[in-house]
Write a structure and sequence with these properties.
single chain; 287 residues; alpha/beta; FAD/NAD(P)-binding domain; 6 helices; 25% helix; binds flavin-adenine dinucleotide
Amino acid sequence: MADVIVLGSGPAGISASLYVKRAGLNAVVIGRGGGSLEKADKIENYYGFPEPVDAGELIKNGIAQAKRLGIPVIKDEVVSLSYLDRYVVETKSAQFEADSVILATGSSRKSPPIPGLGDFEGKGISYCAVCDAFFYRNRPVAVLGDSEYAFHEAAELMPTASSVVLLTNGREPAVALPKGLPVIKKEIAAFEGKEVLQSVRFRDGSAYAVSGVFIALGVAGSADLARKLGARTEGVAVLVDENMQTNVPGLFAAGDCTGGLLQISKAVYEGAKAGTSAVKFIRSKKR
Ligand SMILES: Cc1cc2nc3c(=O)[nH]c(=O)nc-3n(C[C@H](O)[C@H](O)[C@H](O)COP(=O)(O)OP(=O)(O)OC[C@H]3O[C@@H](n4cnc5c(N)ncnc54)[C@H](O)[C@@H]3O)c2cc1C
């Protein structure tokens, strides 16, 4: 049995595990791979790197850092979280128990199976407005989605892009649209372009010219798991206090899954805070 199980091996989860381990407690990290950072290419806005750093390298180094300290980093997918007299984490292939759990599974931004989407990732298709809006200044962009998250992304893009339109891909928006956000509800057939994305082709044969499409169909795994234990959530975000504590004792959350600024710096900070809070929680329990 571990003192703390960290769900997610991205910047938030690894950062949390380092603080638990260095305080002399046992941490186990479970991550299935494929976090946000795996979709990124070069990172230019994280402290301490004079040159752009490869996102894949950052993930690898984080995991190596945890392993060097003796923290097990298990590659598996978490399917369930429950509480009996301790936390029970079920993965696809095993079961783990701990006194405390830190949710750090990021924000799952789902990709719809639209032809061309994979081809233009990083060349017009983005998953992060706050990260990439700068590259599309004074150019037409679209946001694919129909929920609050999509509206948030559109609002982030409006000050820099020449135009922003919402694409719902045949769906009715789940909530009322904000004023001033044009919407195209037609079903999408493909994303098209030569080297980079140039247009969206609809099933009725018409096309819409864009330089960028931001995918915003996020569903956070952490929020689903948190809800199972009665923890409070808001949309896809797990609600926490300033110590990253949820309303359930011993359950903490950090990184993209708590909402707000979806950036590495915030994930690393929140991981550190969640790790130290989990240590305090366990020490007070043992006293
Ligand atoms: C295209 C793109 C570009 C970006 N560019 C930048 C940038 O330039 N600068 C910047 O600061 N930020 C950038 N970001 C954002 C940054 O990647 C995230 O803010 C950061 O990775 C969040 O860290 P996290 O640990 O909370 O989540 P993630 O990095 O998403 O990690 C989540 C972890 O949880 C695991 N996981 C999820 N579900 C399960 C499950 N059910 N079972 C087990 N494990 C699970 C995943 O495998 C992963 O290990 C970018 C994001 C994208 C998508």
